[in-house]
Amino acid sequence: MRVSVRSAMNQAYATRDSKRARRLIENLARRLESAHPSAPGSLREGLEETLTVMRLDLPESLERVLSSTNLIENLFSRVRNTARRVKRWQGGMMILRWTAAGVLEAERHFRKVAGCRALSKLVAGLRTHDATIDRARQVENGKRAA
């Protein structure tokens, strides 16, 4: 089922409509339920988070950058390469210093993020999204108190 699952996932994440993407992923989860009982749970587990970028209505270039793990993987790789120089770790502070050194080394190689001009739109969208979540929590807490 690898080919059909990959195709369905690619189709879902290639769409720019979060509601359609959710529908496609939910359909895939239902299709997988009988043959692979744990797969639907994995698909649904981070669904809200993965669709958040789509909901923010960002330019395609910025959405593509934020939908990838390349940025964080690049940073981790640079930190790992810097930390390889250490032969004997001597406590937590040393780990923090070498991690910071790795991050500073990585920073020297960072390039401008594609779609960086839309970062203000990203910040505004995230604030709106957070406010929506906060309101939903308040309603939920009000129902529990009642």
- Describe the global form: extended
How helical, in percent, are the residues?
over 70%
The assigned structural class equals mainly alpha
The biggest beta sheet is recorded as: none
Gyration radius over CA: 20 Å
Q: Residue ranges: pLDDT <50 for 5 or more in a row?
A: none
The portion of residues forming beta strands comes to under 5%
- Report the order of strands and helices: HHHHHHHH
Separate helix tally = 8
Total DSSP E strands: 0
Estimate the mean pLDDT confidence: 86
**What is the terminal separation in angstroms?**
48 Å
Quickly list its features.
146 residues; 0% strand; extended; mainly alpha
Q: Secondary-structure map with pairings?
A:
Elements: H1 2-14, H2 18-32, H3 39-45, H4 47-55, H5 60-66, H6 70-83, H7 92-109, H8 119-145
Helix pairs in contact: 1-2, 2-3, 2-4, 6-7
Short overview:
Helix content is 75%, strand content 0%.
Describe it.
It is built from eight helices and no strands. It is mostly helical. The mean pLDDT is 86. The chain has a domain at 1-55. It has helices spanning 2-14, 18-32, 39-45, 47-55, 60-66, 70-83, 92-109, 119-145.
